[in-house]
Amino acid sequence: MNYRLLLFSLFFLTIKNHVLAQEEQRCHTFEIRQKEIEAYPSLIPLIQQDEAQMQQWINNNRSRSNRNIVTIPVVIHIVLPQGQLNTITARDVASQIDAMNEDYRRQNVDGNKTPAMFLPDAADAEIQFVLAKRTPDNQYTTGILYEPNPITEWDGSQFELLKQTAWPKEKYLNIWVCKIANSIIGYATFPVSTETDGIIIASRAFGRIGTYLSPIYNLGRTGTHETAHWLNCYHINGDDGTQCTGSDFCDDTPNQAGQNYGCPTFPHPSCGNVSDMFMNFLDYTRDSCMNIFTNCQKQRMWATLNTSRNTLLNSNTVTPPSIPIKDIAISGIIYPSGNVTKRSIAPQIRLLNNGSLDIDSCIIHYGFLNQDVAEYKWKGKITSMQSEIVVLPKIMDSIGYSIFMCYVTNLNEGVAEADTVNNFMSRRIYVPADAAKDTISEYVLIYPNPSSGVYTLKFDSLVLNNFSVEVFNIVGQTIRLDLQYNTLNEIQINLMEAPSGLYFIRVRNGRNIFKGKLLKLTR
User: Fold this and answer.
1) Most buried by CB count within 10 Å: which residue of 115, 220, 221, 450?
2) What 3-state class would DSSP assign to 203?
3) In the chain, which stretches have pLDDT less than 70?
4) Residue 50 backbone phi and psi in degrees, to 5
């Protein structure tokens, strides 16, 4: 849409004509801002001044390409009645941060669904979000605050109540999670505002792994959408109803009539365009339909971070006041990532020692949302502030979109940690229908064999959650066995309770079957 600064005041007046066509409203930001401007008309020249300052920064930095990634410190306030606080877990919070980081870095797996005509405009915003590690008074924090409140349904009139829990906007992005009234799932403040600065997200639209998520707002993109408002970006239709006269002040988002809901079929024209950019994070479509920020939207975000929100660039709140003694973190998921070509996946994660004490063991739990979770007992040595890439035994995923999750427990055989929030990470991936399905090789090394009862089977390839092992005696009876994982692609079988003799083993993995013989010696 064309930039029309001189009509900025008229832009806000046209909000009054906005009529919702759907019961569920993704965002209530502009309705709240309309009321704010009606109550404080003196805000209009301040908003105009902020816009002019942004445009000047954009014009002066339009050709700048060698930017460092900006890190924004986040504090999450869980504001629910006492008995409902546990419905939002630390892992839900971590998954929300993961979702926003993927979207703002254009690492979202569904970025390949952006229509070709819009690909030249697609942008990596070069912004990432990290939970704060330092409180305003320089104490350690996980960045998550549980703040019980008896209010069961929040609305925009209650911003004032949040002032008592807000951390300074100069150093933090405040996000409140609560139950919002009137079928609204989120709203935010712009940099120029009389309201308490930050974002409010409905608990049913927060994160991407929770039990109570809305079926259409379940990928964390309400956080993506509202944070863009907080960074001075507007709805792409200009919030003028269906008049085709509003503006989001970005030339690379086609002028469109009204917000889009659901997930339209491309092309979806209006206002004389070839198609609305309905997959933009600042439209109203469902989470699974969104996949793009544009270069202009990125410029507005960066201009905001260098003007009205420039104090965030110097915030020290993502570093703890001191190094904790014991703290392990998952600092990255190397694989799987994006579009994968195999259904059997050997994940690779990076373990980071955030503490001063050496790390020598932990249990890594991993798998896909709503599927079985595998466990891997890792042993090694990671010294302070160092990391190690761990390759995990293969697991099987189904075709389509899914969320890979991993988390760490039992640090050094049960040592208490300073922070367990950073033990979790998630990544949304896509497995195409023609993805290859690994199976075991026909060649399997069994040792020692003969044995007094304990055997190791080493495979070229073994899918952890898609195999079975059976042992039979010479008359075909099934023998009870104990089974455990040794290392990558190895399993150990214990037949110590079985009598000596000859046994037959059958391993099913995917579509393949391995058959072999075990000879047990007399003890």
Assistant:
1) 220
2) helix
3) 1-24, 65-66, 156-157, 159, 437-443, 460-466, 486-488, 509-511
4) -65, -40
Q: Count Cα neighbours of 340 within 13 Å in the Cβ-side half-sphere.
A: 27
Amino acid letter, residue 35:
K
Which residues are known catalytic residues?
226
pLDDT of residue 151: 85
**pLDDT tens string 272-324:** 999 999 999 999 999 999 999 999 999 999 999 999 999 999 999 999 999 99
pLDDT at site 465? 61
Burial group, residue 53, by CB count within 10 angstroms (0-12, 13-18, 19+): middle
The CA-based angle 152-34-158, given to 5 degrees, is: 25
Q: Which residues contact residue 54 at a Cβ distance below 8 angstroms, ignoring those fewer than 6 apart?
A: 232, 300, 303, 304, 307, 308
Residue with the two structure tokens 């007399």: 522
CA–CA gap between residue 156 and residue 354 (Å, rounded): 39
Per-residue pLDDT at 460: 67
Instruction: Give which of 478, 476, 468 is closest to 498, Cα–Cα.
Output: 478
Q: Which of 345, 422, 334, 335 is nearest to 130 (CA)?
A: 422
- Phi and psi torsions of 388, nearest 5°: -145, 140
Q: Give the span between the Cα atoms of 440 and 286, in whole angstroms.
A: 40
- DSSP bridge partners of 406: 366, 425
The Cα 384–Cα 36 span in angstroms is: 50
Whether cis (ω within 30° of 0) applies to the bond prior to 448 is: yes
Number of other CB atoms surrounding residue 270 within 10 Å:
18
Burial grade of 259 (CB within 10 A; 0-12, 13-18, 19 or more): buried
H or E segment to which residue 285 belongs: none
Amino acid identity of residue 101, one-letter, is N
- Span 225-272, pLDDT tens digits: 999 999 999 999 988 878 898 889 999 999 999 899 999 999 999 999
Q: DSSP assignment, residue 309?
A: T
- Picking from 364, 372, 368, the residue whose alpha carbon sits closest to that of residue 345 is 368
Quote the CA–CA distance of 26 and 217 in Å, as a whole number. 9
Q: What pLDDT is attached to residue 3?
A: 40
DSSP class per residue in 382-440: E-TT-EEEEEPPBEE--SEEEEEEEEEE-GGGT---S-SGGGEEEEEEEE-TT-B----
The values of phi and psi at residue 304, to 5°, are -65, -45
